[in-house]
Amino acid sequence: MKKKLANRICSVCVGVAMWLWPALAQAQFRSAIDVQEWPKGKVVLTTGDTIYGALIFYRTQDVINVQHEDGSISSFSPVNVDYFVAQEMPSGRSYYFKTLPWDMGRAYSDFKKPTFFEQLNLGALTLIVRESYVSKSPSRSGWRNYLYDARFYPAEDQWVEQVKEQYFVLLPDGQIVQLRNVRRDLHKLFGAKSKQVKEFVKENKLDYERPHELIAIVNYFNTLSLATNP
């Protein structure tokens, strides 16, 4: 009964995620490959203060700017920010970014730097993401596809820059685990429920490389965890 309930819940999750993601993701505005802008949002500071306004997120520098109604701009780094929420218009889709202490991928390091992560879901395993950027030289036959793909940006000569997501999982104890091989590393975290998740992925023909489907996979594991531990 619990398994059937989890399957029903996650079937809805898959349907909603797959319907919403493609249309809404295209509504993002970027003035540069690593600069993202939204017309509306709020920044909640570590002091408890909340600031509203248009947002500009400089991803490489890890800086969020808030433009006030009088035209002035306030800049904040992760050390000053608890979280911020950016909102698209007119769709109303929200993006949630949380400041988390991160060892920057350095194993056995005691130093953890406050860092912005985009949070994609919430549960026993919380999927979070940052961006990296790579340059590629497209083939002549594929050039047109690159030009019309919002994930690619013209650079010098025949080179284009591509956004590459770096996925992580935030564990309940606050530990951040990088998914270097997304499928393999996730199933290590799934543990005894790995087989059930594989069956769900196969049944729904999901792909670990598609963001909305990846979210659905992790959400399904979380529903299994809830069914096991009500």
Describe what is shown at a glance.
The protein is of the alpha+beta class and 230 residues long. The protein has helices spanning 2-25, 143-147, 182-190, 194-204, 211-228; strands at residues 29-32, 35-38, 40-45, 50-52, 54-58, 63-67, 73-76, 81-87, 94-102, 113-119, 126-136, 152-154, 160-170, 176-178.
How many distinct beta strands? Answer: 14
Q: DSSP strand (E) fraction?
A: 35-45%
Provide the low-confidence segments as ranges.
Answer: 15-27, 143-150
Helix content: 25-40%
What order do the helices and strands follow? Answer: HEEEEEEEEEEEHEEEHHH
The number of helical elements comes to 5
Main beta-sheet strand count, sense and barrel state: 9 strands, antiparallel
Structural class: alpha+beta
- Silhouette: globular
Q: Provide mean pLDDT, rounded.
A: 84
Radius of gyration: 19 Å
N- to C-terminal distance: 13 Å
Can you put this structure into words, describing what you see?
With 230 residues, this protein is of the alpha+beta class. The protein has a domain at 2-27 and 93-131 and 164-228. It is built from 5 helices and 14 strands. Strands 3, 4, 8, 9, 10, 11, 12, 13 and 14 form a 9-stranded antiparallel sheet that branches. A 5-stranded antiparallel sheet has the order 1-2-5-6-7, with no helix packed on it.
